[in-house]
Amino acid sequence: MARTRSFDPEQVLQQAMMLFWQQGFERLSMEQLVKHLGVNRYSLYETFGNKQALFELSLQRYIAVVFEFMQMPLKEHKGKAALTAFCQKFRDQLQRTNANNGCLMFNSLQAKTPMSDTARQNLHTAIEKQQTLLLQRIIEAQAANEFNRRFEPEAAAQFIAAQTRLLLNTRRDQGIEAMTTIADFIIADIEAW
Amino acid sequence: MARTRSFDPEQVLQQAMMLFWQQGFERLSMEQLVKHLGVNRYSLYETFGNKQALFELSLQRYIAVVFEFMQMPLKEHKGKAALTAFCQKFRDQLQRTNANNGCLMFNSLQAKTPMSDTARQNLHTAIEKQQTLLLQRIIEAQAANEFNRRFEPEAAAQFIAAQTRLLLNTRRDQGIEAMTTIADFIIADIEAW
DNA sequence: ACCTTATCAGAATGCTCATTCTGTATTACA
DNA sequence: TGTAATACAGAATGAGCATTCTGATAAGGT
Questions:
Q1: Neighbouring C-alpha atoms within 13 Å toward the C-beta of A152
Q2: Which of B4, B7, B3 is nearest to B40 (CA)?
Q3: Among B120, B152, B119, B150, residue whose Cα is nearest residue B135
Q4: A162 and B169: CB-CB below 8 Å?
Q5: Range name among A22-26, B99-103, B130-134 with the lowest pLDDT average
Q6: How far is the C-alpha of B74 from the C-alpha of B71, rounded, in Å?
Q7: How far apart are CA A170 and CA B110, in angstroms?
Q8: How far apart are CA A106 and CA A124, in angstroms?
């Protein structure tokens, strides 16, 4: 019947996500999106709605792909092994080239990016799910006497989550060595308990 | 000869700093500045240059007033006492009402706010000065056997500086209790050594 | 080959913003 | 008291942005 789309929406969304990750919602203009995605301006609006909708889809994809990937260790292991593997993964990711953008999720919260209520809800439930996972692993580790029992599990979970946020949000120009050192501190702390 | 200024540039600058601190460079418009400062638009340009110049002056004032104030403990004490007093001060500041804006300096770096080379230079020297102070106090504390000697002083200084940044940059809506708990973790860590 | 429908390129719209301009009001000093 | 210089209020300018429109182009299905 009609002309077929010359681009794959999934691929375009992936690239849009990377651009939003690198530049943030405000800094990234539709001009740049059109230019870098290689897709016609009007086609973008037809396919995704508008800039905010495209951002929210990117955020959703980030949560499903990047954020979930980062906490696989918490699902694959139990107790202290899960915690150290989790921190180790953050430490390793810092060495990668595209890891100097911080976290799209926390960056967007900090920048107060405009978001629909449902998008904001998804964001917070994802964060809470991570917190719950951490909590479970800490409780396991304490039960196995692999983790200092004097700390409240909730506080310790918040502490570790905050540390990972710190690692992600610290820019490379502040010294990548510093960041891996911090990761080592945390790992050493967990190991020491 | 001529009409006198009806406002005090110092007071206006102080208020501008607070506004930039609350909202950031991009979000804060000249419209808002004119409205909240109660000063004529053209008078602002006459007195301070333009928006970026006004921001840089605000940043300079922040460094001189707020940032310096926060590290007084590092200058007034020595060794471990300085470190715990420093962390304690951050912990106390978190309880205050206006402490939920993060740090103007690190927020601006993160948001990639446009800045002249000299402004950026001032920012970095201020940060380095803090780092140096921390380093000196850690070296003293290690010499007095008040601080775990197995840690490299530079790494430990970077660690503590990163923690304070984390405390300041974590928004109140993520739970103030969580943040004070984290501060307590750090203090307990230093105390334990 | 033809028609339907989608894509495309670029111009047009309307908004917000920083900055500048214009004319008026005000005040210190001679 | 008059005058020169400055503050002031509000309009005007021009750039950048998201979004929409227009007319042309392209490709499937019949």
A1: 10
A2: B7
A3: B152
A4: no
A5: B99-103
A6: 5
A7: 8
A8: 10
Tell me the C-alpha distance between B67 and B44, whole Å.
25
Nearest CA among A155, A109, A163 for reference residue B177: A155
> Which of B109, B111, B170 has its CB closest to that of A162?
B170
- Distance, CA of B154 to CA of B131 (rounded, Å): 9
Is A95 at the interface with chain B, CB within 8 A? no
CA distances from B103 to A80, A81, B18, B34, B57 (A): 34, 35, 11, 24, 16
Determine the distance between A1 (CA) and C6 (C1') in angstroms. 9
| H or E element that contains A9 | helix A9-23
Predicted pLDDT of residue A175: 46
CA-CA distance, A170 to A101, in Å (whole number)? 9
Residues making up chain B, counted from first to last: 193
Average pLDDT, chain A: 84
Give tens-digit pLDDT for A111-147: 889 999 999 999 999 999 999 999 999 999 999 988 8
Could you check: is the Cβ of residue B7 within 7 Å of any atom of nucleic acid strand D?
Answer: yes
Residue A66, classified by CB atoms within 10 Å of its CB into exposed (0-12), middle (13-18) or buried (19+), is: middle
A178 touches chain B (CB under 8 A): yes
Angle at A21 between CA B52 and CA A11, to 5 degrees: 140
Q: Protein B22 CA to nucleic acid D9 C1', in Å?
A: 28
Q: Please check whether residue B121 is in contact with residue B60, taking contact to mean a CB–CB distance below 8 angstroms.
A: no
Percentage above 90 pLDDT, chain A: 51
**Amino acid symbol at B135:** L
Distance from residue B4 (CA) to nucleotide C25 (C1'), in Å?
13
Look at residue B173 in the predicted model and tell me its pLDDT. 46
Global pTM value: 0.86
Residue type, B131: Q
